[in-house]
Amino acid sequence: MATNRLETILREAQRLSPEELAQLIKQAADLLARSRQVASPPTPRYVSLFGSGKGSYATPEEADNFVREERSAWE
User: Fold this and answer.
1) In the chain, what are the domain boundaries?
2) How far is CA 48 from the centre of its chain?
3) 20 to 30 A Cα–Cα from 74, which one of 1, 18, 25, 60?
4) Which residues contact 21 (CB under 8 A, 6 or more apart)?
């Protein structure tokens, strides 16, 4: 069904003047851009993560030890 609709649209587009075709392409590109914005969820910002780990470690020392162990694992 979608293929038939697309073929019909393409046949009609062939009848357009160059100016009309350019306008159609611009409007189709705008429509596609808007649909992509709606379809994809916004990328989370790192700033929103600040404070999200609150309470993950019992003490500041425990957090420091975890960071030290992670850093030593990188080497």
Assistant:
1) 2-37
2) 17
3) 60
4) 13
Q: Nearest Cα to 57, choosing from 47, 49, 48, 67? A: 67
Token readout for 11 is 């046949």
Closest alpha carbon to 53 in 43, 71, 66 = 66
Ramachandran quadrant class, 51 (left: phi over 0; alpha: psi -120 to 50; beta: rest): left
The structure tokens listed for 37 are 């914005």
CA distance 48 to 51: 8
Cα dihedral 25, 30, 35, 37 sign: positive
Whole-angstrom distance, CA of residue 64 vs CA of residue 55 = 14
